[in-house]
Amino acid sequence: MNTKQLTAAMAISDQAGTARAGLVSDGSRASRVPVAIEGAPIRIENIAKQYGSTTAVSGIDLDIRAGEFLSLLGPSGSGKTTLLMMLAGFEMPSAGRLILGASDITRLAPNKRNIGMVFQRYALFPHMTVYQNIAYPLRMRKVPKAEIPERVERALSMVQLNGFGDRMPNQLSGGQQQRVAVARALVFEPPVLLMDEPLSALDKKMRERMQIEIKQLQQRLGVTVVYVTHDQEEALTMSDRIAVMGNGQIQQVGTAFELYERPATPFVADFIGKMNFIPSRCIAVDDECIVVRVIGDVLIRLPRDQVRGGLSPVAGDMLELAIRPERVRIEKLGRSVGSGVSGVVEARAYVGAFQSYVVRLADGTMLHVQSQSGESSDCSFEERQSVDITFEPTALHAFRGD
């Protein structure tokens, strides 16, 4: 993930905002669906989950706002799905409380929580029509038979599947099945919708289209969504806020911009997009800046507000400097102005708008660099070519070193 990709992701998220005006992604008018769902806030208080001696989730505190789209983002084994399953009621916490609105739902059965759920594999009943699948939650809740047709049709309209009620699931595309699963989860108008990697089975183009459609629907209805994914671009595109999880804990909660530009921990810095880490030593500290030494005798003056993780470094401390590949400048040897380090291009790749390089620095550190593609020979470097590397001081983040 680079600045251009992040900007594109934010643009898609902004595009989803047009749903408030009743527009769908192709510019046509959306179905006029009454806004009948009022999202509810969720409070997660010191939630933990143990499986024998294994800790899956450890002491999580999180407030999710009413009507918010919040993603739980992290690698496999980070605890995000376990946390979602506890919210749904399919797993019981070992400790802590779950509050939905003003109600404690910690020990409630799943069918008593009034929460919609969309699973990774949709979980549609193959022997039922689309209409019957969507009507199923209403029948289980003893909704009067006379009300069911209107509510099912309204749910089909929400997901732009009018006229599909008589079809069987195997007659639908993957994207259409996913929409049916969303309609079934929303038909009983829950204040919260939980989604467990619902787009993972779709191809890239369909995933991108469904990301916009789901975000549009959520904004139009105002339902609170908690969305689990391991795909960072998906989370950056769809979410109002993202909770990055690792090792059973929340590492940071913030907007896409905050996570990308101001990561709180090395884990977040490394997981969101690409990041270079450079060993350094703090040699001086004042009220406004710290001075660090990298790659031999190169000195960099770093503003104190770029020191992350609540650190208060003193002279002699080992630090890790982190910087995005697109914030590193690569130039021909001898062309750099100011403090720079030399290196050798180990690999290069043309990736459209960018040239991507791997540069080996004098101390053996491998640095990833992205520079904008251009016709000038000054913008292109060959393998085994010696180059100068400079860093934008304002783009550096300082973390505790090993």
UniProtKB/TrEMBL annotation:
<comment type="function">
    <text>Part of the ABC transporter complex PotABCD involved in spermidine/putrescine import. Responsible for energy coupling to the transport system.</text>
</comment>
<dbReference type="InterPro" id="IPR003439">
    <property type="entry name" value="ABC_transporter-like_ATP-bd"/>
</dbReference>
<dbReference type="InterPro" id="IPR017879">
    <property type="entry name" value="PotA_ATP-bd"/>
</dbReference>
<keyword id="KW-0067">ATP-binding</keyword>
<dbReference type="InterPro" id="IPR017871">
    <property type="entry name" value="ABC_transporter-like_CS"/>
</dbReference>
<keyword id="KW-1003">Cell membrane</keyword>
<dbReference type="InterPro" id="IPR005893">
    <property type="entry name" value="PotA-like"/>
</dbReference>
<keyword id="KW-0472">Membrane</keyword>
<dbReference type="InterPro" id="IPR013611">
    <property type="entry name" value="Transp-assoc_OB_typ2"/>
</dbReference>
<comment type="similarity">
    <text>Belongs to the ABC transporter superfamily. Spermidine/putrescine importer (TC 3.A.1.11.1) family.</text>
</comment>
<dbReference type="InterPro" id="IPR027417">
    <property type="entry name" value="P-loop_NTPase"/>
</dbReference>
<protein>
    <recommendedName>
        <fullName>Spermidine/putrescine import ATP-binding protein PotA</fullName>
        <ecNumber>7.6.2.11</ecNumber>
    </recommendedName>
</protein>
<comment type="subunit">
    <text>The complex is composed of two ATP-binding proteins (PotA), two transmembrane proteins (PotB and PotC) and a solute-binding protein (PotD).</text>
</comment>
<dbReference type="Pfam" id="PF00005">
    <property type="entry name" value="ABC_tran"/>
</dbReference>
<keyword id="KW-0547">Nucleotide-binding</keyword>
<dbReference type="GO" id="GO:0005524">
    <property type="term" value="F:ATP binding"/>
</dbReference>
<keyword id="KW-0813">Transport</keyword>
<feature type="domain" description="ABC transporter">
    <location>
        <begin position="42"/>
        <end position="272"/>
    </location>
</feature>
<dbReference type="InterPro" id="IPR003593">
    <property type="entry name" value="AAA+_ATPase"/>
</dbReference>
<dbReference type="InterPro" id="IPR008995">
    <property type="entry name" value="Mo/tungstate-bd_C_term_dom"/>
</dbReference>
<dbReference type="Pfam" id="PF08402">
    <property type="entry name" value="TOBE_2"/>
</dbReference>
<keyword id="KW-1278">Translocase</keyword>
<keyword id="KW-0997">Cell inner membrane</keyword>
<dbReference type="InterPro" id="IPR050093">
    <property type="entry name" value="ABC_SmlMolc_Importer"/>
</dbReference>
